[in-house]
Design a protein that fits this description.
The complex is a heterodimer of chains A (about 90) and B (about 230). Chain A has about 90 residues and is α+β, with helices and mostly antiparallel strands. Chain A is built from two helices and three strands. Chain A has a three-stranded antiparallel beta sheet with strand order 2-1-3, covered by helices on one side. Chain A is elongated. The chains are: A alpha+beta (about 90), B alpha/beta (about 230).
């Protein structure tokens, strides 16, 4: 059993109005960064998960995303493994 | 009429709902989110508030509460379920209603009276209103912007599942009358079977003239009338 650190990036779906992103965009523009075309604000969730393999850890977290971590109506998610410990696969 | 008012950690309209049910001669009971079983209840109400601090997404954690399994079973059997504000968010997260409530388009928490047009006067929750009637009740939310995919939005209109829409005092669904950016000014929807209603505005806060409006009373008298009709 190894411990893996996974990162879930949850972002508002394309086409969905993202008022937070819009507000940040305005703020950046008013600070002089007028080259910023668009801003979308999502969230990052870090999880430490025990699993036999990286693939298993990823499968588990994908299931968590479907069940709880993201709302498929409004959000997309992306799972990546960002670290591991104890006998991690090379 | 025995009515369960479910309390989640962070609910803050549960007492208002309790009082509203009492006012129409119903018999309310608080049901804690960790309790199990809804046998013997005629209706289930999910109150407004900020269950679990709105962590992750409004309603996302509350829908995992033990009692929600019973709420889903109750709804599946055709039992009337009404979710108001955070309760509406919980119903969407639980999959009992389609779509989702996201951050208000203007980013502001909106807390003021709104006008609603009653689009359906033939539901368990609206039979005491007239179709097209305009009522005034408060909203108080930061995440009331109704979103769904295009297919769902079309189905809601085609099957007349939109029960309340934000309008001006004359009943016009204008952009200015929309407090949160909801698609098509949607303020409340019902499921196909007609037994699960979710709405962002607060009829339970419009029960007494001294508090500004009595326009919310109809939701509760309608529910009593439909249940006593079913029993008789």
């Amino acid at each position: 059993m190894s411990r893996f650190r996974l990162e879930v990036l949850v972002t508002p779906r394309p086409g969905l109005l993202d008022p937070q992103g819009k507000a940040v965009h305005h703020a950046l523009n008013s600070l002089g960064w007028t080259e910023v075309e668009e801003v979308r604000v999502g969230k990052a969730i870090h999880l430490d998960v025990d699993a036999a393999s990286e693939a298993e850890a990823r499968d588990k977290v994908e299931a968590m995303c479907r069940k709880l971590l993201a709302n498929p109506v409004t959000e997309d998610y992306e799972v990546s493994v960002v670290g591991s410990r104890e006998g991690a696969p090379s | 009429m025995k009515v369960a008012v479910v309390t989640f950690p962070g609910s803050n309209c549960d007492y208002d709902l309790y009082k509203a049910v009492q006012q129409v001669d119903g018999h309310p009971s608080f049901v804690w989110h960790r309790d199990r079983g809804l046998d013997g209840y005629d209706a289930v109400l999910l109150p407004g508030g900020f269950s679990y601090g709105d962590y992750l997404r409004p309603g996302a954690i509350a829908r995992m509460s033990p009692i929600m399994e019973d709420v889903v079973a109750f709804a599946d059997k055709g039992g009337p379920v009404l979710g108001i504000c955070n309760g509406f968010q919980v119903l969407c997260e639980a999959g009992l209603l389609p779509g989702a409530l996201v951050r208000n388009a203007g980013l502001r928490f909106r807390s003021h009276d709104v006008y609603l047009r009653v689009e359906r006067a033939d539901t368990l929750f609206t039979s005491d209103y007239g179709e097209g009637e305009v009522i005034r009740v408060p909203v108080a939310h930061g995440d009331g912007n109704y979103e769904a995919d295009q297919g769902t939005l079309e189905r809601l209109e085609a099957e007349r599942l939109v029960v309340f829409r934000y309008t001006d005092a004359r009943g016009e669904a204008t952009e200015a009358a929309n407090p949160n950016g909801s698609h098509a000014n949607i303020a409340g929807i019902v499921n196909e079977r007609g037994n699960v209603l979710g709405m962002m505005p607060h009829p339970e806060r419009a029960m007494e003239a001294v508090l500004g409006s009595t326009d919310g009373v109809g939701v509760f008298t309608s529910l009593v009338a439909s249940l006593s009709g079913a029993a008789g």
